[in-house]
Amino acid sequence: MKLNRLSAAVCAAVISAGMVSCGSSDSSATADAVTPTGQEQGFVSSGKKLSEEYISAASDFSLGLFRKAAEKSLASGENVLVSPYSVILALGLAANGASGETLSEFEQVLGGGMKLDSIDRELNAMISRAGSESTLSIANSIWVNELGGIKIKDDYAKKCQKLLGAHAFSLPYNDGTLSKLNSWVSEKTNGMIPKMRDSLEADEIANLINCIAFESEWETQYEEKDIGDGTFTNINGDQQDCTMLSSKEHLYLQCSQGEGFIKLYKGGRYGFVAMLPNEGVALSELADSFSKEQLNKMVNSEEYLKYDVHVQIPEFAFDGSYILNDALKAMGLSTAFSDTANFSGMADEQLFISQVLHKTHITVDRKGTKAAAATDAIMSKGAFSIDNIKQVFLDRPFLFAIIDMESELPIFIGALNSLK
After folding, report:
1. Which of 300, 322, 396, 418 could pair covalently with 234 via S-S, beta carbons 3.0-4.6 A apart?
2. Per-residue model confidence as pLDDT tens digits over 38-63
3. Sign of CA dihedral 342, 89, 78, 259
């Protein structure tokens, strides 16, 4: 049986998926032609909030993805950053074209067994919540190789546009389109991911792309007296010079394997979570023990608001690039990557996912945080008193996350092992 390969790429939480042509074909289209906001793309907000059922499922997915994607990197002492938000939204584009067992796996992995219609309402709420303010921006698109010989179903394209704000357009896959695709990703990630792909292969059918950009100042800005030279001891025990940011925070976190804090961003809607493992506890051990229930327990404990926390955060920045195929398969999304995949809701031809590429970026400094992610799924032909003071100095490897303070869902999850 001749198969058409669906590859996925994530850049700081961007998934690009290979898909078939979605109706309109405008070979003169540019990156600017892919409208930047869901409202301009025919996006219709449901006006609903995220349900507790979905928050639980999405939390499980987010932490599971981080553990699977970060396993080798943590073991080798590398920095890690993934954006579960971006991966979820990119996979949501693919799920809406799936049928049969393939769809069932998407429903289980993305929604803990929720049906696709319900998952779509939750994804719509995620996009709507981000669109209501400027700190977090989300963009989805479907890129189609008009030379690929496969046509994406109009109903699929219209559904993705209405529910997920995905604008679909068709172009011949050549160097010109490669430049436009990379320019689009760069624009939607505010320049933090300047290049998603090095090339577009002739046998690629389509790309399902989600981009996320987060930019925010700290709720309380650092003064010059709070900024000084410091030392970070990396995973190998080497000392690295750094700029340390000192502050007093009020949201203290503690569990059996570590302690940390939440530092709020401007407006209080989002928070930077940092967890420092206890001496002798590996980052991977701390990551394996972490869960939404654990965070809820810490946030609702007596210690949460009991202490002033003297904090030191190193300024840091790094990029990440990951292929998520194995992580997603291990989480239960296996059929979509096989020759028995069923994407008949997307196209009549046989399609499957060949690769999910994930690229990320983060900068944490005295002003605040900038982070971005992009996921590309590609379809191709083929196959205070002294007793109340705590001190958390992030001067050695630690876990961190950027979370939505209302849902406690992580937008980004990472680990800093080294400053270089």
Report:
1. 418
2. 333 478 887 789 999 999 999 999 99
3. negative
For residue 41, give the nearest of 117, 139, 118 by alpha carbon: 139
**CATH fold label, 3-217+317-382:** Antithrombin; Chain I, domain 2 (3.30.497)
Secondary element (H or E) of residue 404: strand 398-404
Q: Residue 327 corresponds to which tokens in the numbers above?
A: 């992580």
pTM: 0.89
Sheet architecture: strand order including 389-393: 227-233, 239-249, 308-314, 389-393
Q: Which of 325, 341, 324, 375 is nearest to 98 (CA)?
A: 341
pLDDT per residue as tens digits for the range 227-266: 999 999 999 999 999 999 999 999 999 888 999 999 999 9
Nearest residue to 140 via CA among 106, 188, 176: 188
Contact 14, 210 (CB under 8 A): yes
Structure tokens given for 331: 């989480």
- Write the pLDDT tens digit of every residue in 201-224: 877 787 899 999 999 999 999 999
User: The domain 224-314+386-416 is classified under which CATH number: 2.30.39.10, 3.30.70.260, 3.40.50.1100, 3.40.50.920?
Assistant: 2.30.39.10
